[in-house]
Specification:
Length: about 300
């Protein structure tokens, strides 16, 4: 039996909590025994989504096999003052010192930072908070734009849904990739993403603009990225000339339509390779005629 203690802060995000809790609950359903416990400094815990939760105020006895998870809470920035008392933070430190594992989701990393558990370690958090986390805890090495980081039995993950990825990773480490995949399947999660994957996919990273025509073009490419998409056809689909589409697309995203399509193909191919496909098979699946172009794209710097 592995104990998973969720340390709840007022205003916590439900998915920061429910996602990882569901992972461990599903693993328990498959015979890998987990017991989830919810503790807080007060019995009634309000959430950011408006529903109240009830938690224990007494901590269970923990062993080195147990895990403590700190879900994040709603805040446009990390809180100025401590969310948890010094006594609670000392419990985190003591559990880790005894050989246990501690983890956080999103802004929960601030609690680990206040406890001193990020000092000298690599860590991450939600992309909107990572710069502030780095300023607040200069002895930590904040890794930007990744899903989760594991360093010395301290795991930190990005925002909201990335807590599911972190929990699936822990299940995979303890019970193997097959069990993690089985849990992901029963949760109808697309895949167990790797910790180094970017927090936002290409479909999201290049959408922060106000051009309706470019959004329409991206909709077409997103839906048909594995198909041949001549610029003439794409321009006709969105009602622009090829020259105007290329100019507007580049102004809005910094990419040409072809480069955007290649980004989507590369991202999906990397996922397939990560799941065990050969480079050749992944290249064909995402629309490349052979693996040469995929290999060239994989060799480019990620910022290109």
């Amino acid at each position: 039996m592995t104990g998973v203690v969720f340390l709840l802060a007022p205003g916590l995000h439900l998915l920061d909590l429910a996602g990882p809790a569901q992972v461990f609950s599903s693993a328990d359903d498959f015979g890998h025994r987990y017991e989830t416990v919810y503790v807080a400094e007060q019995e009634d815990v309000p959430t950011a989504q408006g529903i109240g939760l009830r938690a224990e105020t007494a901590w269970p006895e923990l062993t080195a096999d147990d895990l403590v998870v700190v879900p994040g809470w709603r805040s446009p920035a990390l809180p100025r003052g401590p969310v948890f008392s010094r006594a609670t933070l000392e419990r985190l430190v003591a559990h880790h010192a005894a050989g246990g594992t501690v983890a956080s989701v999103c802004s929960g990393a601030d609690a680990l930072g206040r406890a001193g558990l990020l000092d000298g370690r690599r860590c991450t958090t939600h992309h909107e908070l990572q710069d502030e986390l780095a300023r607040r805890y200069p002895r930590a090495a904040v890794v930007p734009d990744v899903l989760f980081v594991e360093d010395g039995r301290v795991l930190t993950s990005a925002g909201i849904a990335s807590g599911i990825d972190l929990a699936l990773h822990l299940v995979a480490v303890r019970h193997g990739a097959f069990v993690a995949a089985r849990v992901a399947r029963t949760m109808v999660v697309h895949t167990r993403r790797n910790g180094g994957d970017q927090q936002a996919s290409a479909m999201l990273r290049y959408r922060g603009h106000l051009s309706d025509a470019v959004h329409r073009a991206q909709d077409v490419i997103d839906a048909r990225f594995a198909d041949p998409l001549p610029l003439s056809r794409l321009a006709a689909d969105v009602g622009l000339s090829e020259r105007t589409l290329t100019r507007r697309f580049s102004d809005a995203t910094g990419l040409t339509p072809l480069r955007y399509q290649q980004q989507l193909r590369l991202e999906h191919a990397e996922h397939l390779v990560g799941q065990g496909a050969t480079v050749e098979a992944a290249a064909r699946a995402v629309g490349f005629q052979d693996a040469r172009m995929l290999r060239r794209l994989r060799a480019r710097p990620t910022s290109s």
